Amino acid sequence: MLRFIVPSAIGAAFFLLPIPQDVGIKIPMAIFTDWILAVASPVLPITVVILCIVSALATIAYAFTPRGASESATEQILRPGLAWTLLRVAGAVSAVVIFWQIGPEWIWGEDTGVTVLNELFVPALVTIGIACIILPFITEFGLMDFFGVLVERPFKALFKVPGRSAIDAIASWLGGSSVGVIVTIQQYESGQYSAREAAIIATNFSIVSIAFCYVIVAFLDLDAYFLPFYGVLTLTGIVCAMIMARIPPLSRKADSYLVDGFAMDREATQAPSFATALDAALSKASSAPPSSKIAKGITANILDIWLGLIPAGMFIALVATIIVQYTDFFAILSQPFAWLLAALQVAYPAEAAPAMIVGFVEVFLPAVAAADIPAMSTRFVVAVVSVGQLIFMSEVGLLMLKSSLPLNLVDLVVIFLLRTLILLPMAVVSAALIF
Asked: 8-29 pLDDT, tens per residue?
């Protein structure tokens, strides 16, 4: 019982406990993250740059060394294939150019490189590191199994996924989208989810944190409408997940498991009650791995993301930000959405159209693209759709592609577009009712 209660209470408190602050309510993870960002702010940017350089150099070095008889965790991280190697090298070059302000200002300036380094990847470095350390407390000692049994039936009925996926959603809601994706990857790799279930959960439940939602709303000057915004986002997100789980490409993913012989019935074999939920939690806690194994897993996860995700995301986000700021590329590419927005009678459709697609690169870019639109209702639509799209390549998209999840780039593009098309009419109707 203590093996279940103590670690689970620590993990739940860190991710779920609301603590009043001068700027509103925050969870301990957010408070701790903010503290580290404040205390270590002078060294964090150069830390990101060093990680990018180390990642590129180590990956190149491993490319010229023979493979071992059995691939170690280090080799798995540093032998990513040609495409990822090129992205890591490009990310290292980008980080160096930004930090030391090499070349033209349009690359490393305040609106491009500085924003990418300081506003995107410095917080990501801290958030992902903390999340990887705390996640085993909620995944390895029975907390997910406890809640999984309690909400198994409604989650199966609504989203065709196990009840334990509720924790993935909560982790995203309070800790950030990358946190939710990491939870889903770990659960899939341990045999808790099938390929289809993992794909549905990762692409439908991994919403950005409530704190970041407020940042987007405030940037769009919609602070006074945060509660209606979050209510609409929640409702449309539920409807969208119900639909996405039942249509391709997610509905066509196989119900196969990475762990052979894992039973399909899981929590469904028991009636949802407190007693059966507690039994499931105690069973999981009794078989929890030793602390040394957990520590090795944490270290491997952190290094995999720090050395793999951050350099690649650095390059992708920088290129996309430059394109948004200095070209009409996304305006041209988004022309079909301009026609659709006009048909839906959204004000300033041409100005809002680019915001419908730039979120695929980085979740904050739609707010940047739509910040100067005069119509408050249009900015509201952009806020709902951009947050609800969920897939963005600078972070969670790369996490999904790097992982064992059964998702490729084409899947992510199709899912992103389908979510946009499903969310947009609901967001427009909601904006019309509110404004």
From this structure: 999 888 877 778 777 666 778 7
